[in-house]
Amino acid sequence: LYFGRAANMAFALIVLYGTMRALGPCEKWKLGVLCLAGMPMTAFLLPSVSADSTAIGFSLLVVSLGLRLGDCWNERRFVAFLACAFLLALCKPPYSVLAFMILPTICSSGRRWGTKTIQVALVLALSAGTATLWQASVAYLVIPFRSDINGSLTMRDQVAFFLRNPVSLSFAFARQFLVVRAFEYWRCVVGGVGWLAPLVAVS
Length: 203
Fold this sequence. Notes:
This protein is 72% helix and 0% strand.
């Protein structure tokens, strides 16, 4: 268990260093990334054995590379962005939408439309495409994913039920998130003891 925590922490530090390198001279973005990485529950999760540590790391890399590409386009950096977007989609499929932040930069560039179309297709395929394939591969697995809204445990049936009632379920989820469980989610972000959470976990 301690080896797993140490390995995740080492990975988090390497990713954070890579994020700072990716941002280059953009000091204002570096401060923002450090603030995100220093949030109480982020600092708690990074040295834990949770898979969220890897997902958070790749999320920071995707965001930092996207911001840097917005300031200064570089083909090698774009390839690194695509690789990180692909790995992030494998870690946490819903997080694949973070890769979409690069689309306005691509569309507003002065490159030829053929080049821009290929770049947009690559971003969508390696982010949303990867996430969709992963979801399709587990669609028939019986997992406890919101079993209370439809009575079925397969992800395929859950998604089908949501697509039949998108408006009402969206309002229900929004109410749960913004009203019923707002304080609980706030504690998930900040934690019960704030920045002392990592110390409490170690002790």
